[in-house]
């Protein structure tokens, strides 16, 4: 049995070695040199055509896109036509928290908010491709045709956006010199609208301005209103100062992809917040074409404020 087993093994080795290379038939792995050339040529042509077809399809798809305007935007799309409201300072290292909490007696407790605002506002020092818009000048003059259509959004024209000035906020006590009001216990919060290409505020008719903003509303502005979310919060919120008083100026709209678009905003200064209490704040944006919906949070934003006034705990090293 051992002899037959060795013989069978030898035959198997010879068969496999002949499959690898058969000198008599001139084959390698069962194919002649001509057969190998033919099959390699076939797959080379096949995969070359497949790659060319894929590149062609990708090129056709990319040719339908524009780097300045989304393929689908506006009503009936995911982007929609209703801008959301955002606020700063919003901490990237704690994105789920909407609580702005700091201690008047501990600068380190609000330094993170000051740094966040510094970083956010630093982009406004770049004046490249911007222009001073005075009087009736606006972004709309460069981007819209006579029928209100966004004629230049998809063109290669270099558009200089209206320059957004920060001096008004500094004069109102919401500048870097006062740590944006945090050092005084009067924090300043930035409110912005999400960028929607082609969106512009539509003015209310004179007799349809909401009562809640009637005293501050001006045409071509998005007026903002901040209040407590409950009766107790409204009582605790106290005096609120809006900078500018009318809200966000509409001359900075519509938004478009520009070399240096400067997004407009307004600041809300909370002048007399209670100490050591959490106040729930709700801010809403008002214009004829801004829909406010509590369920989906359209046209509004919520956050909490807490100003502490307690002596910070000393570290173990300091106490020793």
Automatic annotation (TrEMBL):
Q: One GO CC term of this entry?
A: sodium:potassium-exchanging ATPase complex
State the source organism's domain of life. Answer: Eukaryota
The way this protein sits in the membrane is described as:
Single-pass type II membrane protein
Read off the PROSITE patterns from this record.
ATPASE_NA_K_BETA_1
Could you give a GO molecular-function term held by this entry? ATPase activator activity
Keywords, alphabetical = Membrane, Signal-anchor, Transmembrane, Transmembrane helix
Task: State its location(s).
Answer: Membrane
BP terms from Gene Ontology? intracellular potassium ion homeostasis; intracellular sodium ion homeostasis; potassium ion import across plasma membrane; sodium ion export across plasma membrane
What stretches pass through the bilayer?
A: 40-62
Q: What InterPro entries would the database entry show?
A: Na/K_ATPase_sub_beta, Na/K_ATPase_sub_beta_sf
Chief localization: membrane
UniProt xrefs under NCBIfam families: Na_K_ATPase_bet (TIGR01107)
The entry sums up its family as follows: Belongs to the X(+)/potassium ATPases subunit beta family.
- Which protein, by its recorded name, is this? Sodium/potassium-transporting ATPase subunit beta
């Amino acid at each position: 049995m051992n002899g037959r087993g060795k013989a069978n093994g030898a035959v198997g080795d010879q068969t496999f070695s002949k499959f690898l290379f058969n000198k008599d038939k001139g084959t390698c792995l069962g194919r002649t040199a001509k057969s190998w050339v033919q099959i390699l040529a076939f797959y080379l042509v096949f995969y070359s055509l497949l790659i060319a077809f894929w590149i062609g399809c990708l090129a056709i798809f990319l040719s339908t896109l524009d780097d300045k305007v989304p393929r689908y935007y506006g009503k009936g799309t995911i982007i929609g036509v209703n801008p959301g409201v955002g606020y700063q300072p919003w901490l990237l290292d704690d994105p789920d928290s909407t609580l702005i909490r700091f201690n008047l007696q501990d600068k380190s407790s609000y330094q993170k908010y000051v740094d966040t605002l510094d970083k956010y506002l630093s982009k406004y020092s770049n004046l490249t491709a911007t222009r001073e818009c005075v009087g009736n000048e606006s972004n709309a003059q460069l981007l819209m045709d006579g029928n209100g259509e966004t004629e230049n959004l998809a063109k290669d024209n270099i558009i200089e956006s209206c320059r957004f000035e920060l001096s008004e906020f500094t004069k109102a006590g919401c500048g870097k010199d006062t740590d944006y009001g945090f050092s005084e216990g009067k924090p300043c919060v930035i409110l912005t609208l999400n960028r929607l290409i082609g969106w512009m505020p539509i003015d209310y008719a004179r007799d349809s301005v909401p009562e809640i903003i009637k005293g501050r509303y001006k045409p071509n502005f998005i007026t903002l209103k901040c209040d407590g979310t409950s009766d107790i919060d409204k009582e605790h919120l106290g005096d609120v100062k809006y900078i500018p008083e009318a809200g966000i100026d509409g001359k900075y709209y519509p938004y478009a992809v520009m070399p240096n678009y400067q997004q407009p905003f307004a600041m809300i200064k909370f002048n007399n917040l209670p100490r050591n209490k959490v106040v729930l704040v709700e801010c809403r944006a008002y214009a004829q074409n801004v829909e406010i919906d509590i369920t989906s949070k359209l046209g509004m934003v919520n956050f909490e404020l807490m100003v502490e006034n307690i002596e910070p705990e000393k570290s173990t090293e300091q106490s020793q």
